Amino acid sequence: MPSPQNHTDVQSEISNAGSTPRITLAQATQVWAKIGWLSFGGPAGQIALMHRELVEQRRWISESRFLHALNYCMLLPGPEAAQLAIYIGWLMHRTLGGLIAGLLFVLPGAIVMLGLSLLYASVGQLPIVLAIFFGLKAAVLAVVVEAVMRIGHRALKGRFFLALAVLAFMAIHAFRVPFPLIIAGAALAGSVAWRTRPGWFAPAALAEALAGEDYVIDRMMLRGQTTHTRPSPRHALRTATIGLLLWAAPIIAVIVAQGHHSVLAREGMFFSETAVVTFGGAYAVLAFVAQRVVAGYGWLSPAQMLDGLALAETTPGPLIIVLQFVAFMAAFQHQSGMSPWLAGIIGSALTVWVIFVPCFIWIFVGGPYIEALRGNRTLHAALSAVTAAVVGVVLNLSVWFMEHTLFGSVRTLSIGVIHLDVPQLATLNPAALLLASGAMVAMLRFHVGMTWTLGICACLGVALRYAGL
């Protein structure tokens, strides 16, 4: 629940002298910076954090519009949480707002990962850093659980939507059905259900979602203050052209300077390819990347790849930031003709660029068309079904995160077409369970702030690790 001070701030933002709602760019920048530095826990934790900050506490965007944006971002290649931040920033403050939101979401993790890469290249494993992030990971479980409960409660209004969420969870968790097929199936089911069983859709909820609610962005749109969300083919073509040129420019520069066979050039091309095939988020592509990097290119050893994954899972920002570590170490170890440190930094920066620039292109080009379709009732029914499926997908991400936080080993049990991740009970980490349980009680029962919870758990993580627990 929002604090009294937050509630007062929200009311002043919404009323603004009784007329036009307004969120200043400075206010938004502060919030995006906070989200960027606290966005631990992979996509589930990051979506939970944005929902908590933007929907629950500040009431900047309504639940229905938040989920509408999330549905679109889940359909795109690349990190969905970063794209969601860009989308909401773009809704509030046009292209500049989207750039600020996206940069502040990505940069904290990129800065931390670059620092960790430099340290790793110098001294190898980083016990103190891993201990801090051990505590943070346990605390993030509370944020994830709270988000799944809240979003599920509001999105699963009726047995039809609950069934879709369960089916989506089972499809992706047990049967490894590709994410795009799950979303397409949910959208089709929603469209058919709207035409054949309209009673399954609550009329009041549908009217509320389409008319807008008492949230800042929704009221701005109702009053015609968001003309930038109107589709324009000319603007879309110009934006796509500029975006593609910017995306390709550093790769071309590296090829000209180092040759197309250099490690840096191959990194730029390989990770550009990776950026457009990561449907369903980073988890869907990590196995592919690990195989190519270790067995294909021979850039990293299996142990180094696992260390990189451990670091990425515990730093702020999208999980796909692990590719920054991979690029740093590959260039540091194999790029010739320059200082290993300089090569690592260039490879790191190049990879961050080619991975995240497409995120901005998808939003700035496609966002207006997605907003224009929002008032279509058949489409809304389809997206409501997609929202239910997304709840199941987020639950799957949450289960994955919980298993890898609380257990040291998780193996895959395959029975025909069924593939289940089964944690090894003997590898249960009592310290992680203790921290996660305490964080859940603190946040869910006593409503302790997330910043305090994360900070305390980080300190306790260090204390427990050095106590040998």
From TrEMBL:
Where does this polypeptide localize?
Cell membrane
Q: Where is the chain membrane-spanning?
A: 96-120, 126-148, 160-188, 200-217, 237-257, 269-289, 310-332, 344-367, 379-402, 451-468
**Membrane topology recorded in Swiss-Prot or TrEMBL:** Multi-pass membrane protein
Any one Pfam family match given in the protein's UniProt record, by short name = Chromate_transp
Q: Keywords assigned by UniProt?
A: Cell membrane, Membrane, Transmembrane, Transmembrane helix
Q: Which family does it belong to?
A: Belongs to the chromate ion transporter (CHR) (TC 2.A.51) family.
Q: What is this protein called?
A: Chromate efflux transporter
Q: What is the lineage of its organism?
A: Bacteria, Pseudomonadati, Pseudomonadota, Gammaproteobacteria, Lysobacterales
